[in-house]
Every structure is written in C-alpha cells, then in structure tokens.
C-alpha cells in the first residue's frame, strides 16, 4: 500500500516493503531533504488519478467497501485518500532545499516532517480501513506499527541516528554491497523473501486491497537468517555505524512483526524438548 511506504524512506538503510532490505541509491551525494522529497513525490494514493486509473473498476471497489464497511465506506475512503494526497503535496511545497542537505538542521527538519506525515498516514488508514477485510486490517496494522517505531528510532534526538548513518558513508556502503546482499541474503526459496501475498485483482488498487503476509515460525526463522546475512555483508563497511544502524532497524521489525516473540517461544520449546 503506497501510503505506507514511509518504510522505504526511513530505511534508506535498506528496508523496503517486499524484502525488508535492499536499497540502491543512484545519487549517493544527494542531501537528505532531496531524498525525502523524491520519496514523497512517488506517493500517489488517490485511486481515480494517475496512469493506472483506466484499469480501475470503481464498481468492484464500491462493492468491497460496502461489504466490509457499509454504504458510506467508499466515499469516506476517497475523501481520506484525496486529503492525504493534497497534504503530501503541501509538505513537498513547504520544504526548503537550499544548502547541501546534510546538516543537523536538515535532518531535524526532515524528522519533524516525518512526524507530521505519520499523523496524516493514521488519518488516511482510518479512512480506508472500513474497506478492508480482517486479514488486510491486521497486515496494515503491523506495517503501520513497525513504520512508526522505525520513525521513532531514526528520528530520536532530531534525527541523530540517521545523520550518523549518512556521515559514516552508510548509503555509499549499501550501494557497494547491494547486489551481493540481494544474491546472498534473499534466496528464491525463502519464505521471508516470498511472503507478500497480493489479491491479483488489478481492478482494485492496493489502497483498497493491501497485500498480506503470514507471519509464522518459518517466516520468522527465514527472516532472522536474512538479517544475520545482511549484517555480515554490512560488516564490510569501513565503519561500524552503518551495520549497527541496520541491525537496529531489523530488530525493530522483528519485534513489531511478532517474530521476536515467535522465535523466543520456538527456542524455549526446543530447550524443553531436548
């Protein structure tokens, strides 16, 4: 769901919706504000605009919303998504990109904007939620909770963790190892790599039919294996800061997704049965 790809920016460090790690930055010297604006410009959640609008079947969307949330759900969702889209544009217009975009003030400004964006995401999610079925609501709840936890970590003390990651050449290091990370850490047979399930109905956009994930023992085990592999790859960085930053990002996801509890329970069961 595009309104929830806040994850993608916060993890300049490498997290993305589908694989949770891998970032390729074509312009590693770009300042943080420019990166943030580029991220915001990719957000297009209003379903009746954009290049794909001709493929959308409004009747199917209305039927789904009516079935899950009642007769007012569809119009309420449209109003919420349109308001969110307009607010994102207002954020873009308000950002001053003068300077090199790498100062403490720049990171603090971006983090203040991210907090505002989080509030807007909450409003948009609440507007569309009645259109979703139970599995979709649960999946989005996990994504939102993890995203907000990531924002809280990345932006604590006015964005110091993200600033330290940048100044330690974290983005540059990710560029250098991204292919190796992708090939070594995300095999095609991994449950974690192939965990996202889409409805397959292109007539209903993902705003109204978000992907779901089954988070179970196998998923979490594969996820932890991928995490350990990524950190090994990150240890090739000249400084330790990028690796620590990425590991913290993973641990936040592990806890927020429920995998931390699942893996602890699995380990305890293994000890008890030994």
Layout of strands and helices, then pairs:
Blueprint: H1 6-10, H2 32-41, H3 58-69, H4 73-94, H5 104-128, H6 134-154, H7 156-167, H8 170-185, E1 196-197, E2 212-213, H9 217-234, H10 241-257, H11 259-273
Structure description:
- This protein has 274 residues and is mostly helical.
- It has eleven helices and two strands; from the N terminus they run H-H-H-H-H-H-H-H-E-E-H-H-H.
- It has a two-stranded antiparallel sheet.
- Helix 6 (134-154) packs antiparallel against helix 10, helix 9 (217-234) runs antiparallel to helix 10 (241-257) and helix 9 (217-234) crosses helix 11.
- The longest helix is centred in the middle third of the chain and has 25 residues, at 104-128.
């Amino acid at each position: 769901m595009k309104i929830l790809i806040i994850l993608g920016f916060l993890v300049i460090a490498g997290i993305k919706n589908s694989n949770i790690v891998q970032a390729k930055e074509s312009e590693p010297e770009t300042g943080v504000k420019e990166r943030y604006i580029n991220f915001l410009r990719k957000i297009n959640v209003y379903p009746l605009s954009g290049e794909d609008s001709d493929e959308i079947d409004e009747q199917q969307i209305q039927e789904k919303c009516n079935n899950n949330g009642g007769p007012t759900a569809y119009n309420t969702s449209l109003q919420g998504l349109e308001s969110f889209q307009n607010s994102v544009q207002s954020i873009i217009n308000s950002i001053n990109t003068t300077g090199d975009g790498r100062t403490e003030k720049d990171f603090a400004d971006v983090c203040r904007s991210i907090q505002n964006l989080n509030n807007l995401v909450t409003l948009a999610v609440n507007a569309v939620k009645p259109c979703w079925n139970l599995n979709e609501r649960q999946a989005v709840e996990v994504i939102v909770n993890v995203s907000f936890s990531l924002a809280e970590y990345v932006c604590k003390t006015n964005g110091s963790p993200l600033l330290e990651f940048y100044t330690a050449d974290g983005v540059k290091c990710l560029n250098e190892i991204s292919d190796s990370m992708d090939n070594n850490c995300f095999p095609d047979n991994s449950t974690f790599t192939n965990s996202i399930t889409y409805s397959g109905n292109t007539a209903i956009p993902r705003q109204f039919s978000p992907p779901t994930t089954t988070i179970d023992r196998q998923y979490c085990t594969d996820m932890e294996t991928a995490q350990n592999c990524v950190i090994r790859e990150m240890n090739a960085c000249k400084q330790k800061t990028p690796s620590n930053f990425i590991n913290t990002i993973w641990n936040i996801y592990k806890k927020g997704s429920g995998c931390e509890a699942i893996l602890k329970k699995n380990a305890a069961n293994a000890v008890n049965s030994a």
